[in-house]
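Friendly challenge for the regulars: who can give me the C-alpha cells for this chain first? No prize, just bragging rights.
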Amino acid sequence: MTTYPKIKTNLQMLSESAEGVLYYIIKEPTSVKFIRLREPEHFLLTSLDGTRTPAEAADLFVKTFNKTISTEAVAQFADKMADLGFLEGTEAKKEKRRSNLFIPLKAVNPKRSLDWLYPKPRWLLSTPMLWLQAIVVLLGLVIFFANIEQFPFKLAAIFHAADILTIIVCLFLITIVHEYAHALTCRHFGGNVREMGFLLLYFQPCFYCNVSDAYLFPNRRDRLLVTLAGISAQLVLWGGFTILWRITVEGYFLNRVFYLVAAICFATTVFNLNPAIKLDGYYLLADYLRIPNLRQKAFDYIWTRIKVHLFGCNPTGVVPSAREAKIYWRYGLLAIAYSVFLIVFVLYRGGQFLIGKWEGVGFLLFLILSLTIFKRLLVKWWQALASVWRERNKVWMKPKRIAIDIVIIVLVVAASVLIHVGQTTGGAARLSAAESYVIKRVGPSLLEGRYFRGGVEDLETSQIFQLTASDYAITQIQPRFSIGDTVRAGDTLLTINSAMNAGLLAEAESDLKRAEADRRLLLSDPKAEEVATKRADIKQTEAIYEAARKEHNRVKELHSKQLISDDDYERSVSQFKIASSSWDSKKSELKLLKSAPKADEVERIDADVEKLQERNSYLQNQLSASTIVSPFAGVMIGTADARDLLQLARTESLMVEIDLRESDLDLLNPGADVELRVSAFPGTRHHGKVLKFKLSPQLRAVAAVANANHSLLPEMTGYAKVDCGRISVVGWLGRKISRFFRLELWSWF
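First reply, four minutes later:
Bragging rights claimed.
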C-alpha cells in the first residue's frame, strides 16, 4: 500500500498577524522544534494529510491561492518537513553544532526545581513589592552614576587576583537568578521549561535557559515579559547591591562583595542587552519586530543580495516585505560588524599571547587553534562560494568570458606596475624656535643665558651670571620687554642691579692696593730714621737689661746667705729674663731691618697680589655683565618653565619635530617636503623641508617651516606629513604586506 506524506496530529499551532500578514507558529512536542510559516506554507503543510500525493496537494494549492507551484517543489517541501520531524513516521534530524563560537556544554531538565521554587517568590510580584523594586532600581541607578568614577570601564581596574574566587561565586549566583527569572516567568504564563545549562558564546561562559515555549503564548505581552524577566531581576540586584555598597564602610569584606556584585550586574546587563548576539537584547528586538530567527534571516538576505548584485546569481528564498528588507539590512550589517570585531579581537589577543610567549611554536599553535575554532565557519563560507561557482561556472567558463577576464587581469597587473602613487608618512608634530635665547634662574644666585640655533647642525652655547655671593644681598632683575614685544639685535633685554657686587668690587680694590703697598715696602731699602730708632730702642733695652742684671746679682747673693725669701728670688730671676729677651729682640729687629727680604716672602705677597687682581677683574666683568643684550632680532614669547625669566625667539621660520615610525626610515630623505597642520588652525596648511633625522629616543624628522605671517608660535602642536616620493602600486602593496609581519618572524625558523 502506497503511503503519502502526513502531518503529525500532535503538533501545537498558534496564529498571529504582523504587518497585515498571517503567520503560524508550529511546535513539534517530541523534539521541541518550532517553525514559523506564512499562510500558504501552512496550508501546504496541512494539505499533506496522508491521502494526497504531492501532485494533488499542488493542484489544491493552485485552486486555493491561484498561484502556480510544481509537484517537485511540494515534494521538496515535504522532505524538509520530514527532516524537521513534522510528518508522521519521521524524527527530527539531530542538528550539527552550528559553530565553535556557540558551544553547549551541559544541559539539565529543571522541572523539579521549578515545581519546588515556583510558589515561593510570588510575594515579590505584589504591587507594593513591585513599587519597592522600582524605587531600589532608580535609587541604585542614581548612586551608581553619581559614583561612576569608582567603576572604571576596565576589568583589570575593577577586579584583582585576590577577588577571583569571590567573582566566580557572585557571577554564578547572579546568572542563576537571571535564568530562573526567565524560567519562572515562562512557567507562570503556562509554558514548559525543559532545558537549562551552560554554553560558550564567543568563548565566554554563559548560563542559558530554553524558554522557547513562549513562542506559543497567544499574548505578545507575555512573551516580552518572559524575555524581560532576567534583565529585570538583574536590575533589582544591581540597584540593591549598589545601595548596600554605598552605605557600608569601605575596607570590609562585605563592602567589597557588594561592590563586585554591582559591577558584575552592570557589566552583564550591558552585555545581555547587546542585540548583535543571541542574548536577551536580541530576543527582545526579535519579539518587538515580530521576526523570529532575525539574525539568520538577516544574514541570508544580505548574502542573497550579494550573490545577485555581485555575482549575477538568481534570487532564492522567500522575498521579504519592504519593511523586513529594511530591517534585515540594518540589523544584518550591525551584527556582521560586531561579529567581525569580536572575532578579530579574540584572534589578535590570542595571537599576541601565544606568539609573544612561544614565538614560532606559538604561531603554529595559533594557526591550529584558529582553524579548529573557526573550521565550521570557514566551511560554511566555502560552501556558500562553491554554490555560487556551481551556478555561474558555465557563464564564467565561456571562451569569450575567459578572454575578457585574462585581458582585464593583464591590464590590472600592467597598471599596478606602471601607475605610481604618492607615499607619505606622518605623525604628531611640535614646533620650536629656529633660534632662541633663554635666560633662566639656575640657583639662588645664578642666572644662565642659553643660546640655541637649529639647522642641519645645531649650535648651543651657555653663559653663567652670578648675582651675589651672599644670601642676604639685595639684587634687582629688571626685564626690559614683555611677551609679544619685538626685539632688535643689540637691545637690552635685562639689567641686574646688585649693591653687593659694587661693594665687593670696592673691597677688592682696597685689598689690592694694600697688598701692593706691602710688596713695595718689602722690596724697598731701610730708611736711616728707622735704623736710628731701632738703635735707640736697643740702647734703652740694654740699660734696662744692665739694671736688671745688677739687681739679680744682688738678690742672688742675699738669697745665698738666706737673707731673702725664695719668692723674692724667683721674682728677680723672672724680671732678669724678661729684660734679656727684650734686648735680644730689639737687636734682631735691627738686624732684620738691615738684611735683604727672603724669596718665600716675596713669592707669598706676589701670590696675594695676583689673587686679588683676578678677583678684581672677575667682579668688574660681573658688573659689566649686569646688562644682557639681545644676540639677534626676534619676538618675546611665553615660557613653560617657571624658572625662565624671559625667552626670545626668531619666528620668521620655525623648527618642527615630527614623530615617525622607524619602519619608514627607508623612505625618508633630507629635503623632503613637509605639510603641517596645527591644532590652533586646523584648516591652514604650512609647508617646509626636512633638514635632518633623529633616532633617539625615537625616529623624528626635523624640518624648517616658513612663518612669514607669524601665525605659528613655538610649542604649538599638530600633525605633519612627510612626502616620501612615488612608488608603483605593486611596490606599495608589497611594502605594506612585508611590514605587516613582525621582525621576529625571521628568527622563528
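Residues 12-84 form one domain. Residues 322-373 form the longest helix (52 residues). Your move, everyone else.
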